[in-house]
Structure formats: structure tokens, C-alpha cells
Design a protein that fits this description.
Layout: H1 3-6, H2 14-42, H3 46-80
């Protein structure tokens, strides 16, 4: 038993501690992935940034149009019901 396990409150369920340990490990892994992704973004060349922004804008435009079409369908569906 580690020192941290020995100091854990006895009145808390063991499942709580297992879930906490699991969440802490997941959090650390995601923090590491975030740092790696951030460093990757710093390595992107200016030309790639311009292309990325254009692709992102196209994506946002399509999503906005999809949202509008979905809303129109829902209105029509509600009127027909």
C-alpha cells in the first residue's frame, strides 16, 4: 500500500478512489497530448496556416448551412404533425 493509499479517508468507498485515480491518469494523458498538439501548432508554416484557415471557414460555412437546412426541415415537420 502506498503512502497516498494509506492516507485516504477510510469512510470513502474504494470505487471512488479507483475512479479518481483513473480520472487523474486520463487528465495527465490528455495534458500531455495537449502539450504535444500545441508544439505541433507552433511548427505550422505560414502557408499552411492560410490553407487551414480557408478550410476551417469552408467547414464553418457548410455547418451553418446544414444547421439552417435542419431547422427548416424541423419547422416543416412540426407544421405537418
Amino acid at each position: 500500500m502506498s503512502a497516498s493509499e494509506a492516507s485516504r479517508a477510510e469512510w470513502l468507498d474504494n470505487r471512488f478512489w479507483e475512479k479518481l485515480d483513473s480520472l487523474e491518469q486520463r487528465h495527465q494523458k490528455i495534458q500531455s497530448e495537449h502539450e504535444e498538439a500545441r508544439r505541433g501548432l507552433e511548427r505550422v508554416r505560414v502557408e499552411e496556416i492560410i490553407e487551414l484557415r480557408a478550410a476551417w471557414q469552408r467547414y464553418c460555412d457548410v455547418i451553418a448551412e446544414l444547421d439552417r437546412a435542419t431547422a427548416d426541415l424541423e419547422v416543416l415537420r412540426a407544421q405537418g404533425a
